[in-house]
Amino acid sequence: MKFVSIHDLLTSYVKEGRIKLDKSIHHHLATYHDPCNYARKSERAFGHGYYEEPRWVTQQCCENYVEMYPNRANNFCCGAGGGAWAAPYSEERIFYGRTKAKQIKDTGAKLLIAPCHNCRDQIMKSLRKEYDFEDVEVKYLWELVADSLIIEPREEAEE
Amino acid sequence: MEPLLLTKREKRKLASTYADLCLTCGTCSGGCPVTGVDGLDVRKVVRLALLGLDQEVIDSKFPWVCTLCARCEHACPMNIDLMTLLRSARANRARDKVPGVLHKGVEMCLKSGNNVGIPKDDFIFLLEDLGLELGEELPGFEVPVDKKGAKYLFTINSKEPFAEPEDMFYWWRILYAANESWTVPSENWEGVNWGLFTGDDEAMKEILARLVKNYKDLECEYLVLPE
């Protein structure tokens, strides 16, 4: 049985020229959030943390990029991991997210890329409002790629 | 509190292979954003486990407020398997005491093939409908459901068909642009395995086994690991 992660898939599409991306669409300063599962937990469980691939993909779409600090294996969780987004402890979840909110605000970025449903929901739907940074746009990594695509519609005859 | 007789204490319920190596340095708690919430922190959880006060940890809110982010484990100088310890505290909860909707989601997934109970017919109808909508912009696009021999088998986060269906367009656009060979199963397509969060290994294995069955039945080359 063979597996592929979405990071490998997106990276290969760009490297092999199978998709073309327009960097002029997202001109604001962008930053990237390392989700625990694809970053340090993947490194521990599978011997490879997906740190560089999503950063590279992000920077294929965004000219202006800045890192949060700390990042990669030392990154802070968004506060909603491990099922906390679906758990009833919302006060604790928001309190947890204060470190993430500060990290994001400190970068000055106006676009945050989160390659995880859970992190994206916590940051976009909760932390932005609670910690007053609704001027920061939040996108999935694949949303950023999809919104940057230069699509040449297929000829129907090719089908 | 009655003194515990260490010679007579029960077999430890919480799993943690190396917890007795703890140096009590507190590095774990120092870097954790929820240290102190519910009167606990990771270091205290390790101490409680070592003292045989397993049930106090299991009954506390802390293992559920902790997001299993593993920052503590990453920093631990003794390399203690703190995630195994904290997740086992979740696993030891009676299933009807699992907070919120998590266990209900697991049960629903075992019953219906996805965490929110979307019936097969509704799912297929939704994908067809959305496929037509996107096809207006991208000529020839349709959602390939149960397509045998596709290269990539994709799962779907049930949150999307349930509440944010148009968010599925992002991946569909990319796959269209790359002219990819891919498919989605019509049943057991859930990409979110909540057994991971509730500490329910058996449910987790069963949910994964159904995905593997789809992968084999549909003769795909790769299973795509989502977010």
Structure description:
By secondary structure, chain A is mainly alpha-helical. Chain A has one domain (20-152): Rossmann fold. In chain A, 42% of the residues lie in helices and 8% in strands. Chain A contains seven helices and four strands, in the order βαβααααβαβα. Chain A has helices spanning 6-15, 40-46, 52-61, 90-96, 98-107, 117-130, 141-148, and strands spanning 2-5, 30-32, 111-113, 137-139. Chain A has a three-stranded parallel sheet with strand order 2-3-4, sandwiched between helices. In chain A, β3, α6 and β4 (137-139) form a beta-alpha-beta unit. In chain A, α1 crosses α3 (52-61) and α3 (52-61) runs parallel beside α7 (141-148). The mean pLDDT of chain A is 95. Chain B is mainly alpha-helical. Chain B folds into two domains: 8-93, no CATH class; 102-223, no CATH class. Helix content of chain B is 44%, strand content 4%. Chain B has twelve helices and three strands, in the order ααααααααβααβααβ. In chain B, strands 2-1-3 form a three-stranded parallel sheet, with helices on one face. In chain B, α7 (102-112) runs parallel beside α12. Chain B starts with 26 loop residues before the first helix and ends with a strand. The relative contact order of chain B is 0.12. The mean pLDDT of chain B is 94. The chains are: A mainly alpha (159), B mainly alpha (227). At the A-B interface, β1, α1, α2, α4 and α7 of A face α5, α10, α11 and β3 of B.
Give a brief description.
With 159 residues, chain A is mainly alpha-helical. In chain A, 42% of the residues lie in helices and 8% in strands.
What structural keywords apply?
heterodimer, A: mainly alpha, Rossmann fold, 7 helices, 4 strands, globular, B: about 230 residues, mainly alpha, 12 helices, 3 strands
